[in-house]
């Protein structure tokens, strides 16, 4: 799994722990995110843009707090993710 | 018509405005619910870790195991690179590592190359270059991006940098462990990121954890101190027993010689011993007898407490033992004009399994006490009762009785009852007789109880279980 897919999956998992299945249904609406039969997300197109789109989707529904949750999800990734590869909204 | 159209447009605008404000309200509520859910999720995760820490506090015993379990739980749960707990040894004036989180094999063998600087961390409290010491002494949270600040003077700056790179340590955060205002040590957590990159959950958990870690360490220290003190007490107790045993043996021989010579001076002197010399010799003889009794009792207590008393389990008739005790002490009872009786069914045998010699000592003691504390013209009765479950032997007297408050002291070592119960006794006891009796009966699986009322007399009952009876 590439780093962006890993970030997206972590964010969806974290959001699901807070708001439940709605986090997944919102992610499914983002163009460029496809889910495998096992429920794992794969990205198509520009991954940085797709990631940006997903965070903004959550922000639109749940406000600024959801961005902090996404940032925290990225911070918990091992090994740490370089801020250079992240969209501005997650920096 | 124009009016109608105007009204219709106005209605639509109003409906749109209402719908928009409703959407705004819904969005606001939605965000609020989300924020509350975030709070709850963070608290939930924090509580889950705290619960694990509580489990460690409640189950781990000893300082080292507690510290090791704590540091591993924190590092694993929060996914940090490494962590260790160092505590102050105030006597040696050093801060030394007591627990280090587990590492993978590669990292562990890498650190071995540098003589395990985390495990063997040992810094003098005067070494202000080491940030662990500074954080502990000043009781302040610290952090550093330079591992050398932590490991100095254990390793060189170059080695620190190499370790830092190998273990992916970017920042180390130090939390002082403080309990009741006293610095106990420091908890160091090594992260692979800057402290600003800690998540809200990590920050909140660490904040909550620190208090618990302090409690856990203090509790473990107290347990370790108690264990040490207990071990020392046991050693001292053993020494005391040995001393009592040796001293008693050494005392008994000369005391017996003194007693024999005093007896000879009183009874076998070529000249008649005149008063007041006879009186002085009599007092000396009785005091010597009492001392020998005390020494013997102390030896018995010492043997009992060291588990050196062996009880023979042989069948015998307890009624015969009581008859012997009765015959032996009947003369003393007659001298005091005491009505002394042994009540038993002559046709019945009272066979039990036990140590007849030791049980005889018990009844000698109980009847001896009754004789000592019963006034002239009083009454003492020994009764035997046997049923399917046990045999009960009671010794009743019409002495002064013992009030309830004093009864608790009776079976304790060197207990002296503070009551006129002893007013009829001319000879003070050693304060060990009832204690020894209780121990001997206990070794037979039985018990001694007392029923007494002030000024009405006492009944001591020995109960021996049927399981020991054939």
From TrEMBL, chain A:
Name assigned to this protein: Uncharacterized protein
Organism: Candidatus Roizmanbacteria bacterium CG_4_9_14_0_2_um_filter_39_13
UniProtKB/TrEMBL annotation, chain B:
Organismal lineage: Bacteria, Candidatus Roizmaniibacteriota
Sequence segments annotated as region (Disordered): 1-23
Entry keyword annotation includes ATP-binding: yes
Molecular-function GO terms, alphabetical: ATP binding; histidine phosphotransfer kinase activity; phosphorelay sensor kinase activity
Keywords for the protein's UniProt record, in alphabetical order: ATP-binding, Kinase, Nucleotide-binding, Phosphoprotein, Transferase, Two-component regulatory system
Name under which the protein is recorded: histidine kinase
EC number in record: 2.7.13.3
Catalytic activity of the protein: ATP + protein L-histidine = ADP + protein N-phospho-L-histidine
């Amino acid at each position: 799994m590439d780093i962006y897919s890993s970030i997206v999956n972590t964010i969806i998992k974290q959001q699901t722990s807070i708001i439940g299945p709605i986090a997944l249904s919102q992610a499914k609406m983002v163009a460029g995110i496809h889910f495998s039969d096992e429920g794992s997300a794969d990205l198509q197109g520009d991954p940085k843009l797709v990631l940006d789109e997903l965070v903004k989707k959550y922000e639109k529904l749940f406000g600024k707090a959801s961005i902090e949750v996404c940032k925290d999800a990225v911070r918990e990734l091992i090994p740490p993710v370089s801020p250079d590869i992240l969209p501005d909204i997650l920096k | 018509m124009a009016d109608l159209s105007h009204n219709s447009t106005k209605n639509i605008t109003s409906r749109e405005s209402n719908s928009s404000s409703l959407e705004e309200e819904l969005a606001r509520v939605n965000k609020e619910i989300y924020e509350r859910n975030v709070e709850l999720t963070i608290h939930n995760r924090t509580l889950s870790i705290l619960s694990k820490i509580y489990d460690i506090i409640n189950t781990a015993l000893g300082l080292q195991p507690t510290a090791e379990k704590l540091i591993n739980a924190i590092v694993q749960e929060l996914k940090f690179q490494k962590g260790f707990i160092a505590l102050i040894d105030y006597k040696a004036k050093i801060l030394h590592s007591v627990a280090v989180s587990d590492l993978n094999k590669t990292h562990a063998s890498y650190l071995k190359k540098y003589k395990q600087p985390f495990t063997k961390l040992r810094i003098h409290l005067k070494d202000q270059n080491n940030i662990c010491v500074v954080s502990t002494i000043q009781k302040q949270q610290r952090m550093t991006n330079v591992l050398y600040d932590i490991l100095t003077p254990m390793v060189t700056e170059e080695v620190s940098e190499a370790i830092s790179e190998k273990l992916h340590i970017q920042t180390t955060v130090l939390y002082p462990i403080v309990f009741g205002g006293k610095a106990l040590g420091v908890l160091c957590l090594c992260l692979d990121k800057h402290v600003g990159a800690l998540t809200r959950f990590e920050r909140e958990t660490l904040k909550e954890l620190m208090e618990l870690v302090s409690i856990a360490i203090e509790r473990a220290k107290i347990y370790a101190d108690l264990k040490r003190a207990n071990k020392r007490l046991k050693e001292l107790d053993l020494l005391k027993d040995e001393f009592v045993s040796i001293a008693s043996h050494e005392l008994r021989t000369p005391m017996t010689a003194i007693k024999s010579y005093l007896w000879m001076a009183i009874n076998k002197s070529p000249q008649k011993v005149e008063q007041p010399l006879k009186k002085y010799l009599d007092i000396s003889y009785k005091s010597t007898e009492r001392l020998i009794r005390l020494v013997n009792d102390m030896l018995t207590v010492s043997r009992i407490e060291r588990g050196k008393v062996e009880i023979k389990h042989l069948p015998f008739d307890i009624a015969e033992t009581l008859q012997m005790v009765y015959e032996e002490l009947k003369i003393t009872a007659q001298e005091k004009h005491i009505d002394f009786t042994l009540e038993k069914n002559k046709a019945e045998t009272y066979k039990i399994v036990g140590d007849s010699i030791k049980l005889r000592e018990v009844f000698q003691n109980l009847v001896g006490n009754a004789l000592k504390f019963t006034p002239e013209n009083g009454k003492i009765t020994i009764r035997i009762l046997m049923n399917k479950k046990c045999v009960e032997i009671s010794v009743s007297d019409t002495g002064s009785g013992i009030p309830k408050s004093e009864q608790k002291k009776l079976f304790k070592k060197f207990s002296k009852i503070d009551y006129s119960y002893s007013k009829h006794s001319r000879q003070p006891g050693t304060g060990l007789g009832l204690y020894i009796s209780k121990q001997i009966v206990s070794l037979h699986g039985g018990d001694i109880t007392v029923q007494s009322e002030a000024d009405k007399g006492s009944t001591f009952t020995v109960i021996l279980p049927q399981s020991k009876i054939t």
